Amino acid sequence: MASELRHDQLRQRWITISDKRGKRPSDFERMSSQRFGGSPEATNRGPCAFCPGFELVNGHETFAIRDGDQADAPDWRVRVIVNKYPAVSMDYGDLQPTGEGAVFDECRLPGFGSHEVVIETPSHDLNIPELPASHVAEVLKAYQARINWFQNDPRLKFCQVFKNRGNRAGASMTHSHSQLIALPVITHNKITELDSAQEYYNDHKRCMMCDVVEHDTQSVRSRLIDENEFFITIAPFAPSFPYETWLVPKFHSSNFESIGEDEIQAMAKLLKLTLRKMDLAFGYPPYNYTLQTALLGKEHFNSSHYHWYLDIAPHLATPGGFEMGSGCYINCMPPEKGAEFLRNVEIEPQ
Amino acid sequence: MASELRHDQLRQRWITISDKRGKRPSDFERMSSQRFGGSPEATNRGPCAFCPGFELVNGHETFAIRDGDQADAPDWRVRVIVNKYPAVSMDYGDLQPTGEGAVFDECRLPGFGSHEVVIETPSHDLNIPELPASHVAEVLKAYQARINWFQNDPRLKFCQVFKNRGNRAGASMTHSHSQLIALPVITHNKITELDSAQEYYNDHKRCMMCDVVEHDTQSVRSRLIDENEFFITIAPFAPSFPYETWLVPKFHSSNFESIGEDEIQAMAKLLKLTLRKMDLAFGYPPYNYTLQTALLGKEHFNSSHYHWYLDIAPHLATPGGFEMGSGCYINCMPPEKGAEFLRNVEIEPQ
């Protein structure tokens, strides 16, 4: 078995089973002992496989930003490649669901999709807060370019952009990077968000997130962290994690991939500021960020009820069985208090 | 603010915000540096606050199993207490939802509920696999007793029993223990499971999990790990985690808390065997288990469509932004291969 998608019909959740990423049981054993006793961060010494000079080792780029015009040359500033250990792959033809007996009918699909890595900078030691905002904007443009490319394949329904920073947040490489996974199915969380947004719109004739932006910038400002011309960062009203922060456009927009140059530059500045604050406040914490944007496909452009955002979550607590079992999170940092703290983190001028 | 429940209306998820468990930002900073660099397991040296002799420090027990008849005496074998850092508490009267403006209307409840710790053994150094099966049965009976007690309070709707073992699985104490959290709301995962089970029942006029049991024991046995008279352990068809294992009653039963003596003894044996196999195979890994049983309230007794089970998940991989953002999991261990491995782990006679 190479890779497949399976549907957990009790939990309504798609699972990607990827034997290519697979390990023998003995690999898990080693990993586990290491992790239970303490989880040494991967070494930070370069050069690594994401550094310039390793282009041919990594395979052809799917997208890059550089001054020159030769693909796969080492003069890139941002480079996108297929993940070397992909969860899904475009090498599948037939997307007919199959199953196993009557009980798991239509619960199986080939592991079709795209799993890509965005190498955010040629510099082995720099992270988003240390890059110029104009460079961060190029990382965001790489996300846009790839999402827009996926829009052309009608088999792909959903794309998740995400970043794992630090071993505890799921990263295996320290060289600054993020990832995209595009799938032929719509995942559970996205279905829930789209349904909630649609229901709110039906009830109120307004976009839920537009109402949140208005509420948090005008009525109650206690969860507002920072803002600029086009964006705000807020602690969400009901955050799952301590200091969870949403970066939200002030203007209504359902598709991140369609925003223009001025908005991308403003977003890059606020993203850089937010991650810089977290690095200063929490001592370079592991974190994830995930982009929540509309589904793939032209019919999902300019939705009046969905409003995209970027969800940034430092790993400062360890979810356990309660969260896993119930889907309810215990958060020991009230968002109003967390926002006040992050609002007041002092940043030296750069 | 002491503790409150908030509803994330976009993700349809309840969050517990507990300032009692709260930390100052500087606490997070220390925690983060420690964790990012490596996560030292809490010291395993006894005695700790869960050891006999500390009964008065921990406060009155809510339940215990002992030979004597004096509450809070140190001769217990299993002891249940209120969590010292509770996510919720019974000290709230009014359960009327409140909100904040129009956008967060009815999204707030006081942090009402019960958060208890089941100290599974007086021995500081023993875990479930090292306890006699008859003692493990007493731990399960403590779960039953507390769930049945919560049934008497009509304000409580949902109870999650769970165990965190090891720092990476969310445990802060090494002394073997599990926890219960009872809430006045029904959480997202439970709503999804109940809806799926109901829908399957409507379509097929049979219980989904009864069909899974029949399929996995008779048609396709490749995910079957172990079985005894009343229970099986299986790798689920679409597991979120490598080596995730479900312990499922072979007989139809919606309420764990109502099963009888013979069934509890059989469950204890299979639970002990499963955790022993994981300890041997993966070198004492961190893990969670969570009990998925019916909602609280007599009207949920003997449901024909819901079937309880215990979900055991060793922490051998680190979910990242993809899982957080999409709700879809990447699992690099096909369940058939994982089940074959666990089925063949050799256990010395005990």
TrEMBL record, chains A, B:
InterPro entries: ADP-glucose_phosphorylase (IPR053177), GalP_UDPtransf1 (IPR001937), GalP_Utransf_C (IPR005850), GalP_Utransf_N (IPR005849), HIT-like_sf (IPR036265). Residues 194-310 form the Galactose-1-phosphate uridyl transferase C-terminal domain. Belongs to the galactose-1-phosphate uridylyltransferase type 1 family. Residues 21-32 have a biased composition (Basic and acidic residues). GO terms for molecular function: UDP-glucose:hexose-1-phosphate uridylyltransferase activity; zinc ion binding. Binds 1 zinc ion per subunit. Residues 21-42 are annotated as: Disordered. The keyword Nucleotidyltransferase applies. This is UDP-glucose--hexose-1-phosphate uridylyltransferase. Zn(2+) binds at C48, C51, H124, H175. Its cofactor is Zn(2+). One of its GO terms (biological process) is galactose metabolic process. It comes from the Eukaryota. Residues 3-183 form the Galactose-1-phosphate uridyl transferase N-terminal domain. Keywords: Carbohydrate metabolism, Metal-binding, Nucleotidyltransferase, Transferase, Zinc. The keyword ATP-binding does not apply. The active site is at H177 (tele-ump-histidine intermediate). It holds the Pfam family GalP_UDP_tr_C. It comes from Ceratodon purpureus.
